[in-house]
Amino acid sequence: MPRSTSSSPQPGSRPGRFGLSARLLVLTILFGLLAEVFVYLPVVANYRRNWLSNRIASAITAALVLEAAPNGMVSDDLTREILSSVGAKMVALKTADSKRLLASSEMPPTVSLSTDLRTLTAMEAIGDALDTLLAPRGRYIRVIGDAPMYGEYIEIVVDESPLQRGMYDFAKRWLVITLAISTITAGLIYLTLSWVIVRPMRRLTGAMMHFAAEPEDEARVIQASGRSDEIGAAERELAAMQRQLRGTLQQKNRLAALGLAVAKINHDLRNMLAAAQLFSDRLAETEDPVVQRLAPKLVQTLGRAIAFCQSTLSYGLASEPLPARRRIPLAPIVTDTRELLGLGESNDKLVWTEALEPGLQIDADPDQLSRVLLNLCRNAMQALDGNACADGVPNAITVSARRSGALVTIDVADNGPGVPEKVSRKLFEAFSGSTRPGGSGLGLAIAAELVRAHGGTLSLLNGPQNPIGATFRIAIPDRAA
After folding, report:
1. What is the value of pTM for the model shown?
2. Summary mean pLDDT of the chain
3. Pick from 233, 241, 251, 192: which is nearest to 212 by CA?
């Protein structure tokens, strides 16, 4: 078998650098980082919320001190120390009756953002955290929290810069930890998937290319690893497919060799058979009764030998020509088939019956359809040859045809011994479908190929509806308008 040496992949060759393994590693790292980003946002938002909650808790403690001291007894220095311990510039308390300023710096800052921890949702917390990370330095924010011991709420104003620095430091530590976790996780996932999936896939690919280099070598068939998962199933199916392909290639090579041998001897063989046929014709002219009795059988045998050589060569061609289809009447083709078989309208040994719809036309190639009918009817005659008539019923061949919409169905039936079930499974395969000794098994294969070229089907009707003989059905649809 010729093979290309320039474009076919070499056995064991590897794919490009950015193969399945590299893509798997990159995608694992990217998805790991993406997951860490989605996790980071809620975490940093929670960090900000906890930081502000701690400031509120410190402010509540400071409020206790400020509330316990008599009016005017808290000095400015003590106020600044209290505010410094809280980390706030101002502390105010809202009760049911009033709102009191408990402590404040000398110059109250301008507030840029307000955060109410009592009603803060998760999405708002994430948005405020991003706002803090991107905010300019030196911004002041107002924070409102619960004050259950005093009243409705406690309010503080804090410098956002310490919070911002803490969030950046937390983000750096989180980034280092997540990168380490992502790298380790990606590496473990990559190694696991590479061992479980990528390596077996490389083995399957290598086995395919190794087998493709010499598909007829049994040693190149992949050996299944015995795994019970999908990879193991793929290995077993690949091994079965390679063995089947190897057997098919060997059979095709033998058939090709047979066809070549037949083609070489066909010319000389047909000349010799033609010469023998001429001699048999001259023998038939003699008056010897023995010669008169044997000469027709000799002529018939030589004719079959010539037809066998010709049919073998015909099937060995690459393909049959495309049918030249046109709408033609079916009755003349059936009549020509009867005449080509040498059957008269009246025959004591064989009854020929035509049951065609009046004026039935078919969209087909007349020459190819004639070949199909001739093959089927000749097979029927050969099946009936030597078949004893039962209860005085003569051997019969019936050709019937009918149209159903755009489909024409032709049945060729006989009342002979029928087709054994074992033979019927390979009836339309070349060199396998013959039911008689010495048959080539090509007639039905050629007929089926010609019918398929018309877009139709050729089938054997077996079963309870046909208990006697054999019925072959040709179904040919009209071409689409």
Report:
1. 0.43
2. 77
3. 241
Mutual angle of helices 289-316 and 230-283, in 10-degree steps: 150
- Cα dihedral 145, 150, 152, 158 sign: negative
The pLDDT assigned to 372 comes to: 92
Could you give the residue ranges of the DSSP H alpha helices within 150-288?
160-193, 199-213, 230-283
Q: What is the mean pLDDT of residues 337-355?
A: 78
pLDDT of 106 > 70? The answer is no
- The answer to whether 150 and 63 have CB atoms below 8 angstroms apart is yes
- The bridge status of strand 88-94 relative to strand 153-159 is antiparallel
Please list the residues that pair with 411 across neighbouring strands.
400, 473
Provide the β-strand partners of residue 88.
Answer: 158
Alpha-carbon span 126 to 1, nearest angstrom: 69
Note the residue count of the chain: 481
How far is the C-alpha of 132 from the C-alpha of 126, rounded, in Å?
A: 10
Radius of gyration of the chain (CA): 48
Secondary structure element (H or E) that encloses residue 66, with its range: helix 20-68
Residues 370 and 333: beta-carbon distance below 8 Å: yes
The residue among 79, 93, 84, 87 whose CA lies nearest residue 145 is 93
Residues 6+ apart with CB under 8 A from 403: 357, 360, 409
- Going by C-alpha positions, the residue among 372, 371, 356 that lies closest to residue 409 is 356
Kindly report which listed range (12-16, 95-99, 220-224, 318-322) carries the lowest average pLDDT score: 12-16
pLDDT in tens, 294-335: 666 666 666 666 666 666 555 555 456 788 999 999 999 999
CA-to-CA distance for 124 and 52, rounded, in angstroms? 14
> Is the four-CA dihedral 278, 280, 283, 285 of positive or negative sign?
negative
Phi and psi angles of residue 360, each rounded to the nearest 5 degrees, phi first: -65, 130
Give the CA count within 13 Å in the CB-facing half-sphere of 272: 7
| Residue 178: pLDDT over 70 | yes
What is the three-class DSSP state of 239? helix
Q: What is the rounded distance in angstroms from the CA atom of residue 269 to the CA atom of residue 249?
A: 29
**Residue 216 gets which letter from DSSP?**
T
A 10 A CB-CB count for 123 gives 10
Say which residues have a Cβ less than 8 Å from residue 340's Cβ, sequence separation at least 6: 374
CA distance 361 to 327: 6
Residue 360 · residue 401 · CB < 8 Å: yes
User: Which tokens hold the place of 231?
Assistant: 């990879």
Contact predicate 277/303, CB 8 Å = yes
The dihedrals phi and psi of 296, each to the nearest 5 degrees, come to: -60, -35
261, 305, 312: which is closest to 430 by C-alpha? 312
Look-up: residue for tokens 């050709």? 399
